């Protein structure tokens, strides 16, 4: 397998940009406006935030060449 041609795909790039811009910055506003009803949205946002982040880290990890010391 040729490891020199590994590239980040379009979907991965879009998810990286979206998660870095949106992030969790809007969560305190949701709690202020909705109260305890926003807990479901916290869970929803956590799933859709950490899923792209885990994909990004997997992409970064797959391109890293580890050599034994």
Keywords:
single chain; 69 residues; mainly alpha; 3 helices
Summarize the helices and strands and which ones pair or pack.
Blueprint: H1 10-22, H2 27-34, H3 39-63
Helix pairs in contact: 1-3
The main β sheet shows up as: none
Which percent range describes the beta-strand content?
under 5%
Q: Name the shape in a single word.
A: elongated
Structural class: mainly alpha
Quickly describe the structure.
It comes from Ligilactobacillus salivarius GJ-24. The chain is mostly helical and about 70 residues long.
Describe this protein's structure:
It is a single chain. The chain has three helices and no strands. It has helices at 10-22, 27-34, 39-63. The model has no long low-confidence stretch (mean pLDDT 76).
């Amino acid at each position: 397998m040729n490891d020199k041609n590994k590239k980040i795909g379009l979907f991965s790039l879009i998810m990286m940009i979206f998660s870095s811009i949106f992030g969790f910055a809007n969560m305190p506003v949701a709690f202020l406006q909705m109260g305890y009803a926003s807990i479901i949205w916290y869970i929803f946002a956590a799933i859709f935030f950490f899923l792209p982040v885990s994909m990004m880290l997997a992409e970064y990890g797959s391109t890293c060449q580890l050599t034994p010391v």
